[in-house]
Amino acid sequence: MSKQQRYVEWFRSSAPYINAHRGRTFVVQFGGEVVLDPAFPNLVHDIALLESLGIRLVLVFGVRPQVEHRLVERGSSMEYRGGRRITDEAALAAVKEAAGAVRLEIEALLSMGLANSPMAGAGIRVVSGNFVLARPIGVRDGADFGYSGEVRRVDTESLDRHLHDGDVVLVPPIGFSPTGEMFNLGAEEVATAIASSLPAAKLLLLGERAGVTDAADALVSQLTVAEATVLLARRRQQGFDAADEITRHLISAIQACQSGVQRVHLLDRRVDGALLLELFTRDGVGTMVNADPYDTMRRATIDDVGGLLGLIEPLEHEGVLVRRSREKLENEIQQFTVMERDGTVIGCAAGYPFRQEGVMELACLAVHADYAGGHRGDALLQTVEKNARAMGLNRLFVLTTRAEHWFMERGFVKARLEDLPVERQALYNYKRNSKVLIKTL
Predict the structure, then answer these.
(1) Predicted structure pTM score
(2) Does 194 have pLDDT greater than 90?
(3) Where are the CATH 3.40.630.30 domain residues in the chain?
(4) How far apart, in Å, are the Cα atoms of 156 and each of 94, 164, 188, 196, 347?
(5) What is the fold, at CATH topology level, of the domain defined by 3-290?
(6) Is the predicted pLDDT of residue 10 greater than 90, yes or no?
(7) % of the chain surpassing 70 pLDDT
């Protein structure tokens, strides 16, 4: 496939995401390290692209390295206690300077309109303001945190008005009190409070790591809030506190999801195009924490046979799925994954491995009509793909009579019967005349 063809395929596959994200509000948070990176203009150009696609954006930036640099120049330093910063008058002055300088730099990059730049004709309007009300942390465990504060309230009415008018809202890590005082805030806390208060559809946290990894150091692409809560408790038992970025991001993700944010994404800021790859590709590049607490995915057991029959029999009568007897289901139950809500099976998929050929057959992918939509079919497909990869298999094939385009939108390509394992070719039902599709994993 040529470079041009690959681009066309990518653009086509991104179309459903472009449509789904239009008109939604996203909060994007990044630290001062991102601003210092030579690749920062690329991130700003990607943000401008999101805005041009109709996404409502709130940008929250941090200034920790900029503040520390200024303090070192003045013979001072920032003090921390339990992962929290202590802000004296000298540190607050450095925070004000750094926040102002970084804000102007971001505004300048978002205002670029040169004909030879990626933002030619973008016409982005940026606003900033005192959207965050704060209060002092005070004295905790004997330590006076000075001008370090925590979010008290977010002026969501003003924020929403600017977003409705098409403005990109830029928010510094600073909060203001009704008495006119100014407080140094954590950028993650500000972003989480804003996303929770609006509420935003997504909170995207750009950090120094790719997201959450497992014991084998492999990226965990998706977590439920319950799973994130268990992981956070484990990290705290291991001695991680707020100084640890993943711990902070898990805290933010759990709080945001519990407050109405649908998805929180933990991304590696060092990956060029991380925002675009996460938002407009199926697999993404980070860890997504999902707010939906109702649907769970698990391996099927013999107790699920009745629920599976109730789910697939209507589709068998319509000719969408191949008929399966109770006995066949019982014998093959270990190949099935089920999606369950409140004890009811609402979706399923089966994966039959052909280890010698390095492939797996995807079969019996179904979602109950009452729960169609919501990307449940995608979640089941991704689970089967994950299982195939875990077995060391590198291809997935499916036979379908009705859903050819759905699968092709998700990376499958047309294939021939001869491309299937010989054992599977022998079982092909010529009367159904199913289309053969294959995906490379």
Answers:
(1) 0.69
(2) yes
(3) 295-440
(4) 28, 12, 17, 10, 38
(5) Carbamate kinase (3.40.1160)
(6) no
(7) 96
